[in-house]
Structures are given as C-alpha cells and as structure tokens.
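Moderator note: this is an archived Q&A kept for reference. The question asked for a predicted structure of one protein chain; the sequence and the answer are reproduced below.
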Amino acid sequence: MGKLDNQQIVEKIEKIVAPVLDEMNLSLVDVEYMQDGGYWYVRIYVENLNGEITLEDCATISGKIDEDIDKLIEQRFFLEVSSPGIERPLKKIEDFIRFKGEKVKISLKHKIEENKNFEGIIVECQEDIISLEITEDNILKIPFSEIRKANLVYEFDEF
C-alpha cells in the first residue's frame, strides 16, 4: 500500500470516528488533518444535536480513537477533539437545512455576480440549491456543489 494523501487519511479517520460517535449519540461536523507551524494536527469537530459537548465527551472520544489513528499516520501528530464553536462550518446539505434562518459566510469555487464571497441569511434549501438573502431585495441561488467553504456568522447583540 502506497502513502495515503491527506484526503484519504481524513476519510479513514472519519471511518474510525463514526462508530464511536454513533454509540455516544454524537454527530461528526468535520475532520481536519493539517500541518501548522511544523507540527501535524488531527482535529475532529463533533456536536451533540440535543445539547452541549462536554470536555468529558471529547476526552472519551480521544481515548477510543487515539490508537487506531496512530496506526494510520506515520509522523507524530496532535489529536484534538472539540466542538465546532459558534462560527461552526457548514459541510453537508443537511447543515444548511438545519441552520435555515441563520446568517452565514460562504466562499465559492467560482464567481457568481463577479464575487466569490457572500454573507447572508439562509432562506431556503431545495435539492442542491441554497437560497441566500444578501439584502432585502437580493436573494442569491447558490448550487451546493459551488460552495468551497461555509461558516455560521455569530453576531453580538448591540445594546
């Protein structure tokens, strides 16, 4: 077996993590395998659809998957398991459906209306089209396949 590329490693990590999360009734948001400042990191973002993720949850997951991921990756790495935070990435079409009505920042693969970056409210998700309200009279229809990156936008309440 030749060397795995980063994407293949991420896919294998997802397969290792899935059964652990299923048994804990948690959901996988994202897996990152990347080099940062000379060190390699495996970052696993999980959420509890019915509440909060605790530090205990993260420690339990880490303990159950650590050995299997060790066998997968040759170089030394840091394993981090955490919740995705308030500016959570949206990866799957289900994420867009779930966060309908929320403000998001979207980065596209190709330009639409001379732009690759948009911020707006998710108003609708039909099939693979996300409708994003940019302004009151401008609703942009974005094919899901065109989305390179998307995150929720957290807005602080003004007093």
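Archived answer notes: The mean pLDDT is 92.
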